[in-house]
Design goal:
- The protein is mainly α and 149 residues long.
- The protein contains four helices and two strands, in the order ααβααβ.
- It starts with 29 loop residues before the first helix and ends with a strand.
- The relative contact order is 0.09.
- Pfam families: MobC_2.
- This is MobA protein.
């Protein structure tokens, strides 16, 4: 009789091809630790070890400071854009209904009023675009801080 070899299930993780076994330790005083934690918080890294390795090996990284007022501005601008799209949809529906439910003369009179409101909306939109461009220029100047600070 032939005996079959039993295969044992070796559960757990598969071993890494290049395991990281070398560990280093360093000590910081209170001032250095505060500065380190400040850089780490602003770097956006989730793991301190990754942050330290990138600093040691000279890989560049950007520290981005997020201003809550700018995030709020972006959220409100996005909501405004969705409202603007709703207005455009309602505008199309109103024009379609004017042509189908009213005589040509009455529809033209109502379309004239709608056109006046549209001109005001276009002026407002141009002002919004101008303010957004100014905001983006100011944000680009003050939004990114280098790691050397």
């Amino acid at each position: 009789m032939e005996q079959k070899k039993k295969r044992f299930n070796k559960g757990g993780r598969k071993p890494l091809s290049n395991p990281k076994v070398h560990r280093y330790s360093f000590n910081l005083d209170d001032v250095e630790n505060a500065k380190f934690l400040s850089f780490f918080d602003r770097s956006g890294y989730a793991v301190k070890a990754h942050f330290i390795k990138n600093c040691i090996f000279g890989k560049s990284f950007k520290v981005v400071v997020r201003d809550k007022s700018k995030v709020d501005y972006h959220i409100q601008l996005t909501q405004f854009y969705s409202q603007f799209r709703k207005i455009a949809n309602n505008y199309n529906q109103a024009v379609k209904e004017l042509h189908s439910n009213f005589s040509e003369r009455k529809a033209l009179a109502l379309l004239y009023r709608l056109e006046q409101c549209t001109v005001e909306l276009i002026k407002t939109n141009e002002m919004i675009v101008l303010l957004c461009k100014r905001f983006e220029q100011s944000y680009q100047r003050e939004g990114i801080i280098s790691a050397d600070e």
